[in-house]
Amino acid sequence: NPILADLSAKIDKLDLSDDEGGDLRGEAQSAWFNSARPAYERLLAEMKRQQGFAPTDDGIWRFEDGAGYYKALLANYTTTDLTADQIHDIGLREVARIHGEMRQIMQQVGFKGTLQEFFEHTRSSDRFFYDTREAYLADVQVRLDAMEAKLPEFFATLPKAPLVVKPVEAFREKSAGKAFYNSPAADGSRPGTYYVNLYNLRDMSKNELEALAYHEGLPGHHLQRTIQTELGDVPPFRRFGGVTAYTEGWGLYSEELGKDMGFYTDPYSDFGRLGMELWRACRLVVDTGIHHKRWSREQAIEYLTENTPNPEGDIRKAIERYVVYPGQATSYMIGKLKIMELRGRAQAELGGRFDIRGFHDVVLLSGPVPLDILEENVEGWIADVKARPEPVMGQ
Q: Which of 13, 54, 87, 235 is most buried as measured by Cβ atoms within 10 A of its Cβ?
C-alpha cells in the first residue's frame, strides 16, 4: 500500500522510540482499513451504479447551454477568442502540413507505400522498440546530456535546479501516462524529475524518445518551470501557478526547437517528433469535433486511427480524456503556434538584430501568462531592441 508505505518511511525519519513508531503505524493501519478503504469502496460502488445511467452522447453540446459553456472553456484553455470552427480549421490545416513533412521522411528512408502503411510499419517493427528498461533510460540520459551542453547557445537564463530521470514507480505504472514532469522544490531540497513509464516498452518507441525528453525535460518543462519557480521578484501565484496554453505550448515548441538546435539526426526520430506534433494537431480536430460538431466517439476514434501513427490503446484512452475534459487538449497546439508566430514576427522585424537568447528570455522570465499578454511582452521587446543604437562595426 503506497499510502501506508509512505507514512512508514516518514515515521522512520522521526526521533521516536520503536514503541512510539509502532503505535503510529498501528493507528494508520486501523484508519486505513476501518475508515479510508471502506469509504473508497463505497465511492467506487456508487460510480459503478451511476455508470448505468450515463448517456451515450459524448459532447458537451448535449447539456443546456453546452455550446456557451464550451466557448468559455476554449477561451479559458487557449486564452484566445478563437471559435470552435476556427480551431477545427487550424487543426485540419496543421494535420495536412505535418502529413506532408512525414511523406518527405518516407521518401528519405526509401519506404514504398502509403502514409498509413508507414504508420503501421513504425508501430509494429521490433527495430523501433527497446528490449530493456535500462537501455531506454541510458539513451534518454545521453540525449539530455547533449541537449544540456547546447543550451547556452540558445538560452541566456538557465535553471539552477538539476534534472533527474526516473522510471515511474511500480505502484502506479499501470495507470500513469507514458511520460511526465515534476517540478523541483522551491527550497532546493528536491530536483526536477522527468518520469518515463516503462511498464510496457512497446508503448515507448525509440522514434519518440528525443521529442519526449525535450518536451518534458530540456529545453521543455524542466527549463521553463524551474526558471518560473526561481523567479524572485514576482508574487507566488506567478511562481507556482500555470497557464496551460503557455506551459504546454512551450513544451511542444521545445520539441521543434530541438530540430533548430541540430538534434533529430536520425530521420525516424524526426518522424517521431512529427508524430507527436501531429497528435496535438489532431486534438484540435477531435476536441471540437466531439463538443461542437457533434461527432460520436467512434467518429473521433476513426479520425485518429486514419491520421496518426498511434496505437489503438492510445487512441481510445485519449478520446475518453477529451470527452470528459472539454477544451483542454486544444491548448497545446494553440500555444505552440503562438510562440512560433511571435518568434517569426520578431525575426522578420529585427533581421540581423534578432537574438534567440533574448527572445527566449522575454518568453520565460515573465512566468506563465495568457497568450495575449505574451504577445504584448514580445512586442515590447521588439520595440526595445529597435530603439537601441545600431552597433558600429569594428567597435
A: 87
C-alpha cell at 71: 466557448
How far apart CA 63 and CA 66 sit, in angstroms, is 5
How far does the chain reach from its first CA to its final CA, in angstroms? 67
Query: What CA–CA distances, in Å, run from 232 to 103, 226, 238, 367?
Result: 47, 12, 10, 11
List Cα–Cα distances, 163 to 33, 148, 312, 356, in angstroms. 37, 10, 32, 23
**Burial class of residue 59 (count of CB atoms within 10 Å of its CB; 0-12, 13-18, 19+):** buried
d(CA 111, CA 312): 23
Grid cell for residue 105:
521522411
Residue listed under C-alpha cell 516518514: 10
- Residue 148 is placed in which grid cell? 544540456
Query: From residue 195, how far is each of 100, 217, 277, 320 by CA, in Å?
Result: 32, 9, 20, 23
Q: Could you identify the residue written with the cell 501557478?
A: 241
**pLDDT in 10s for each residue of the chain, 395 residues:** 889 999 999 999 999 999 999 999 999 999 999 999 999 999 999 999 998 887 777 899 999 999 999 999 999 999 999 999 999 999 999 999 999 999 999 999 999 999 999 999 999 999 999 999 999 999 999 999 999 999 999 999 999 999 999 999 999 999 888 999 999 999 999 999 999 999 999 999 999 999 999 999 999 999 999 999 999 888 888 899 999 999 999 999 999 999 999 999 999 999 999 999 999 999 999 999 999 999 999 999 999 999 999 988 889 989 999 999 999 999 999 999 999 999 999 999 999 999 999 999 999 999 999 999 999 999 999 999 999 988 766 55
Q: Name the pTM for this structure.
A: 0.89
Contact 69, 63 (CB under 8 A): yes
Q: What does each C-alpha distance from 210 to 19, 143, 326 come to in angstroms?
A: 50, 7, 29
Phi, psi of 142 (to 5 degrees): -60, -45
- Round to whole Å and give the CA distance between 111 and 300: 28
Angstrom distances, CA of residue 27 to CA of 7, 21, 24, 32, 35: 11, 10, 5, 9, 11
Cα dihedral sign for 286, 288, 291, 294? negative
Q: What is the rounded distance in angstroms from the CA atom of residue 335 to the CA atom of residue 348?
A: 20
Q: Phi and psi (nearest 5°) for 205? A: -65, 145
Residue 158 grid coordinates: 538557465
